Amino acid sequence: MLNRSPPDRQHAAAEGIVLPHLGQRAMVTGGAGFLGSHLCERLLAAGMEVLCVDNYFTGTRRNIDHLLDHRCFELLRHDVTIPLSVEVDQIYNLACPASPIHYQRDPVQTTKTSVIGAINMLDLANRLKVPVLQTSTSEIYGDALVHPQAETYWGNVNPVGPRSCYDEGKRCAETLFFDYRRQHDLAIKVARIFNTYGPRVHPADGRVVSNVIVQALCNRDITIHGDGSQTRSFCYVDDTIDALFRLMGTADEVTGPFNIGNPHELSIHELASLIVELVGSRSRIVHLPLPQDDPRQRKPDISSAKEHLGWEPRTGLREGLLRTIAYFEDLLGQPSIRDMVAA
Ligand code: NAD
Ligand code: UDP
After folding, report:
1. How far apart are CA 176 and CA 182, in angstroms?
2. Shortest-distance ligand to the CA of residue 209
């Protein structure tokens, strides 16, 4: 269901954001994934046509089932590591697994998706002379030594560890985006997204919010890696999508990179305790070994996004978690999903 009100053109113009013309066509790679499916909805609500491109590596038809009958929505099963020839007015490049257990399952493919996928999308954008937006990540800062992280920080990334396929793949993609800008004067936009959560994260995705909510709802042990003192800053999906939409509407010279995240930082232990309280769960917390290269501290400095996009997150953590818990409650009511999660 499309549940967002149409954007207010006057308000957007006052903030320097240009809304797309009705009927313009956007391509969303990774459109059947968590963020991609929300972005497709948002673009349709803005009156755009949407071409959703996905190979279903982590995405699922379930995320976009409700859009299939929309007359402005088109779905293409395709792997972004293979060049693609279509005609569109904007490209949002989201294709890439984002959860550590998924991007580490086939690390070579993860690097190919990030790097070759970026080249294919940049070549297409360059041929069509249309803007292209890259969903980069806070992971490009690695195990940050500077706190909070501003875009000026170059990061602390292990180039040969188990997270490197994702971190370095995304770093190389950023390099490619800025080289296409310098070499071809292409309109590029780079968003460094920090941990985002909300409805439609896959229940077996492995990221902390979905893991803990599913465990709490099933009254199973809550798995905290290490002592739980490592921190993250969690942004609700609607806020992240709003930032991507605004970024695409900026003038060509506005490239970013922009940190997109919620600066409300908390420890993983605090997060787990809050979820247990909100669910009213009987789960107990157990500790597992901390994965290698797991970043210790993460919090975005979003001054640049505030200034250039007129954006900051609006959804508080409790409110966002309650909405996400309601989604998983509903999902776990379906026997096939419950069996999959129990397996
Ligand atoms: P997700 O795993 O739910 O979605 C990724 C989508 O990309 C899936 O639908 C998957 O099937 C598709 N995909 C993967 N490889 C592909 C390929 N080679 N060709 C075509 N499709 C492919 O993850 P998400 O959380 O929605 O993340 C979307 C994007 O945002 C990713 O690029 C991710 O790196 C970035 N990001 C997300 C977060 C977050 O917290 N969710 C944080 C930082 C960055
Ligand atoms: N984490 C955890 N239990 C889980 C899943 C993750 O304690 O069941 C930890 C993980 O080790 C990391 C933090 O939670 O310290 C965030 O993990 P996630 O995979 O969600 O995101 P990322 O590490 O990519 O920021």
Report:
1. 10
2. 2
Select the CATH number that applies to the domain covering 9-342 from these four: 3.30.70.360, 3.20.20.70, 3.40.50.720, 3.40.50.2000: 3.40.50.720
If we measure between CA atoms, which residue out of 64, 17, 173 comes closest to residue 110? 173
What DSSP string describes 140-159?
GGBS-SSSSBPTT---B--T
Closest ligand 2 atom to the C-alpha of 163? 24
Regions in the chain scoring below 50 on pLDDT: 1-7
Tokens of 39: 């972005």
Q: What pLDDT score does 9 carry?
A: 61
Q: Is the CB of 225 under 6 A from ligand 2?
A: yes
pLDDT in tens, 27-61: 999 999 999 999 999 999 999 999 999 999 999 99
How close is the Cα of 22 to the center of ligand 2, in Å?
40
Residue 92 a catalytic site member: no
State the ligand closest to the CA atom of 266: 2
Give the ligand 1 atom nearest the CA of 97. 2
Per-residue model confidence (pLDDT) at position 8: 59
Ligand 1 midpoint to CA 40 (Å): 13
Going by C-alpha positions, the residue among 91, 49, 41 that lies closest to residue 72 is 49
* Spans of all domains in the chain: 9-342
Task: Give the per-residue pLDDT at 129.
Answer: 97
Nearest to 40 by CA among 86, 81, 83, 90: 90
Contacts of 6 (CB under 8 A, 6+ apart): 45, 46, 47
